[in-house]
Design goal:
This protein is an alpha/beta fold. The strands form two sheets. Strands 1-2-4-3-5-6-9-10 form an eight-stranded mixed sheet, with helices on both faces. Helix 6 packs across helix 7 (185-197). The two termini are 28 Å apart. The protein is globular, with a radius of gyration of 18 Å. The chain has one domain (2-144, 204-284): Alpha/Beta hydrolase fold, catalytic domain (Rossmann fold), CATH 3.40.50.1820. It has helices at residues 39-45, 72-85, 105-116, 138-143, 152-155, 159-170, 185-197, 238-245, 262-265, 267-279; strands at 2-7, 10-17, 21-26, 48-53, 98-103, 121-127, 171-174, 178-181, 223-228, 249-255. It has ten helices and ten strands.
Length: 286
């Protein structure tokens, strides 16, 4: 079911499937709720209520006019107000509180929500989570030191150019001669489309991301950590680090041939890890 809610920080586009314990799915930078097209039906079929949204500036959600409005705090407020507008937080019991599933930037948002509202969060699933600017390659860290004012070039980039870069980053070479795509065709199409639909101001968000490293020890909810071993957007070495810093990592798994989006690279391998973790939550007193 597709829907929209007018939260205090602007329209939030989202989809909802299933009935049961609420699971909030949050995508990464320049993506959309379509990141969860494979996981959402599985959640619904297993007796969960899955909610996937387009973050501020993404997909069909509200897009502020000015680049200066694209900061992490605005994105978080948009996300948090949307959850409040669903009236879930007020009606939840301890055994039926929120399960947060976040990829990349969505992982950082999920961690921040757990820090601010620990009583509302039952468990976390983190997929290649973005929790510190130091996870980025040095050249991007340098680029994000200043706000991007002139984003005209990004705004004028056509779909076919985005698609070229998506295709190139997806190629995997084998035995020096044969090449295949790690990401399926429909995922590459949607990824490039999401880039074109996103507001150019979103590329200012990473520079305002709060460094969560020193606060990770405060997050005690049961957590599942999943990541791709060939991530070129975030340093893969940062994921074992967060595994060591979070006090209640129940399970972790890395996918050697996947990059930044293992939930789209091989959902048939990743989704069972998620479902096994969710189905085990009863043993943690949730």
């Amino acid at each position: 079911m597709k829907d929209e809610i007018k939260a205090t920080s602007g329209v939030v586009n989202f989809v909802q499937q299933g009935v049961g314990s609420p699971v909030i799915l949050t995508h990464g930078l320049a993506a959309s709720l379509h990141d969860w097209d494979d996981l959402l039906p599985e959640l619904a079929g297993a007796g969960y209520a899955g909610y996937a949204l387009d973050l501020l500036g993404h997909g069909d959600s509200f897009k502020p006019a000015h680049a200066r409005e694209y900061i992490f705090e605005s994105v978080f407020e948009h996300f948090s107000n949307w959850i409040d507008s669903l009236t879930l937080a007020e009606s939840l019991t301890r055994s039926d509180s929120l399960i947060l599933v976040g990829h990349s930037l969505g992982g950082g948002i999920s961690l921040q929500y757990a820090l601010r509202y620990p009583e509302r969060v039952r468990a976390l699933v983190l997929i290649n989570p973005f929790y510190s600017i130091h996870q980025l390659p040095p050249i991007l860290q340098l680029a994000f030191r200043r706000q991007l004012i002139n984003t005209t070039l990004i705004e004028r980039t056509p779909y076919r150019l985005f698609r070229f870069f998506v295709d190139m980053s997806s190629v995997s070479f084998h035995m020096g001669s044969r090449e295949t795509h790690i990401l399926p065709e429909h995922i590459r199409y949607q990824t490039a489309l999401d880039y074109t639909r996103a507001a150019s101001g979103i590329y200012n968000i990473p520079r305002t991301l709060p460094d969560l490293t020193s606060n990770l020890s405060r997050i005690h909810q049961p957590t599942l950590l999943l990541w791709g071993g060939r991530d070129q957007s975030l340093d893969p070495r940062s994921f074992p680090k967060i595994r060591d810093l979070l006090p209640n990592i129940v399970a972790s798994h890395h996918f050697p041939i996947c990059g930044h989006v293992p939930h789209q690279c091989h959902p048939e391998q990743l989704n069972p890890h998620v479902m096994k973790f969710l189905n085990s939550l009863g043993s943690f007193g949730g």
